[in-house]
Amino acid sequence: MDKKMALSKKQIGLETSMVANKLTDECIYVSLFGLLDSARIEDVSKKITKISESDKIVCVILDLYNVDAIDTAVAGYINRLGNILKLMGIEPIICGIKAELAEKMVKTDIQFSGIQIIRNLQDALLVSFKVTGYKLIKTEK
Question: Taking every annotated instance into account, which residue ranges of this chain make up the domain STAS (predicted)?
Answer without folding.
Answer: 17-128
